[in-house]
Amino acid sequence: MNRHNVPLNGLRVFEASARHLNFTSAAEELNISQAAVSQQIRGLESQLGTQLFSRQPRNLALTPHGQELLAATRPALDSINSAIERILGTDNQEILTVTTLPSFASRWLIPRLDSFQQANHNFELHLHTSEQKTDLIGGKVDAAIRLDAKEAEGLMIEFLVPDALCLVATPDLAEKIGSRFENLYEQPLSMDGIRFSPDHRTDMTGRETEDYLQALPLDKRKLKITEFSASDNVVLSALSGKSTALTRLSLCVDELDAGRLQILFDLCKPLTHGTSFVYPKVRSNDNKLLIFKEWLHKEAKIFNDRLANYCQVQE
Q1: 3-state SS, residue 54
Q2: pTM of the prediction?
Q3: Please, what is the Cα angle at 289 between 286 and 290, to 5 degrees?
Q4: pLDDT (tens digit, 9 = 90+) per residue, 183-214?
């Protein structure tokens, strides 16, 4: 058989690009630049003498030749990967890849992972953090922990943690502010940068944050608002003692329990949504997913009892 000298790396880049239908997402997965992805695709198309992608103003689409190549490339790459795992003796290793928001990872999940790893020595957890939703059906991620998870075909959604919005500050700053709302004018207010969100027009948390601000008996134009693109930085800003912060309760319960932060004016507004565990229905009986899910629900139950000490959230 005549074997064409098509570079394997080019096929890997093509498969990731075709799966995401986005060169930027493919670049992030492969840990290379978007320019390198584009160059690999152009080289492959030049070698094959045909277009594999139809470049549209806002997205990509596979051409018929691209669809044909993907149908052959994906199982071939899977087969190569399986062979390498067998050679390295890692095919029986319990590996689970989970994606979640950076803020939830740093403020909630990572501080609790030690108990999971202590109980599951042979279990390897790969944690992927991103503000973007990851494809759980056709992608290489096994499950997601999502805020305001939406129903979707082929996915299971299990509720974990309810949430609320609260205004917090260090005890020293809270004492300085006292019981007068007008004193908030004198202090910086840190909050999530709603406009930084790619889905800010439909983002439920963003809309409810705006509602919270509107409910304050203040002139919003006089507030010294600083917006952050990362929610965990909002909490860190409050911990500095130089700013108040409007944030999700789930991200600061540990700090409230430790006395490093306190809620101002006893204002805690339950959100109409919370954080859920999401995974493909076809993975419902996956042993490693079941083990992680059971641990997650156990940790969430303990945490939710603590959450209720500060606000009657909706479960």
Answers
A1: strand
A2: 0.66
A3: 85
A4: 999 999 999 875 444 444 446 677 888 888 88
